[in-house]
Description:
It is elongated and about 85 Å long. Helices cover about 35% and strands about 20% of the residues. About 50% of the residues are buried. An eight-stranded parallel sheet has the order 7-6-5-4-3-2-1-8. It is of the alpha/beta class. Among the domains are: about 220 residues, Aldolase class I (TIM Barrel, Alpha-Beta Barrel), CATH 3.20.20; about 130 residues, Rossmann fold (3-Layer(aba) Sandwich). β4, α4 and β5 form a beta-alpha-beta unit.
Amino acid sequence: xxxxxxRRGIFGEGLARICAVxxxxxxxxxxxxxxxGLRETPTIELRLDWLRxxxxxxxxxxxxxxxxxxxxxxxxxxxxxAGGGKLASGVEAELHxxxxxxxxxxxxxxxEMETLRELRGQPLRELHLxxxxxxxxxxxARVPPLQRALRSAAHPEADATKIAVHARTISESIRLLHLAxxxxxxxxxxxxxxxxxxxxxxxxEGGALAYAPxxxxxxxxxxxxxxxxxxxxxxxxxKRTAIYGVIGHPVSHSLSPLFHNTGFIERGxxxxxxxxxxxxxRDFLKAVPELGIRGFSVTIPHKQTILPHLDDCEPLxxxxxxxxxxxxxxxxxxxxxxxxxxxxxxxxQKQIRLQGSRALIFGAGGAARxxxxxxxxxxxxxxxxxxxxxxxxxxxxxxxGEAIPRRxxxxxxxDAILNTTPVGMHPHDGVSPLSPRELNCRVVLDMINRPQxxxxxxxxxxxxxxxxxxxxxxxxxxxxxxxLWTGQRAPVRAMEQAVLKFLCAxxxxx
Length: 510
């Protein structure tokens, strides 16, 4: 019996079911993308509507006719503006270029439902389109009634159907995957950032095809070709694959998928780690048994609000009042713990002696609570400064410290200052939560890990203050998470190098 995720579909199996999307303004760039895409998968979608004019479309198809690679499958799409594409012309132009794509060697074409309606029953075989037809329905605003949508997209001349809809909740994206389980001719595409995990899992659930852009995204929530194949390994996932993830809002900036998946790959584990944009915790928690999630990281703003939903909580995490790690036990019960605590200690202990030191924590959320308890238990006197003074006072009382108004920071000295707020986090990395005159200390730790050198750390370095990047804390707490979930020793060097290489490339590209 074949396992779900490896069954043969109408586009083939394995890598053939990852469709690389080539989309560019010029034929030259499109050719470059096609060649790059073919190094990863034999299935390529040509977005003819992205080319800036008819001359570029003609040039691309002429190249394809002369140089069509053996063993490759090309799917032509020329989507009009009305259907979410870039072709400003009418249905005649769309059909013309799809017919030209057939002559160039494209064996598939994507035809919108809107186009089919405008044809008013005209037989498609009379249009000289590529021999195999993917009939697609897009809704960029919502998830319509799916069974009704599937029935409306049915057509006797269609070889496969694509339903691409904007998922506003994780539950909606899972409902779309349910359709793919029973229909091997369905391409299920949950659009939007909320739907990103379901995009990765679509092939595992039986979807016929998964799209991934070679360069620029062509739809909201797309995962790049490199990430879909090499980081998430979407074509290898099965029902036996252990699912992990990070929940937060926002979450697109997270380095955790790169860090944890690198560990899984290095150790040869059948596991994947996904980013879940979670606005409503209950929506995500309903998906835990549905997707078979084994554990997850918790970040802003859920580190405290997750507590009532846990069945068990490590005593230290309960005392802190914040959780950043959850293990899903075999019986489905949720057990919480906190590894941020360990990350703070490891990041600071090499810089200063914590016993008897004085530390300022800027912020009073879940990360601040872990830092405050870590420092207090290590013997430091902790001061809390936060926008919400009541939260600062409550946290200070919990650790035997003090709440300090911001107006006093300029005249007060500390051994260490820790920023636990998201101010200065990518992509809004040009600002600092504190001014230079407020940095009166020996060490500054910014718990933000992307970018490495935040504006706050740059200000600290300018004042000759030791600047500790949050990536050091991230590595320590993330390693503890990985080992808690897997029961194995983490390949720390490979995991850290993958993240540092990414950050270096990102910073150099600016």
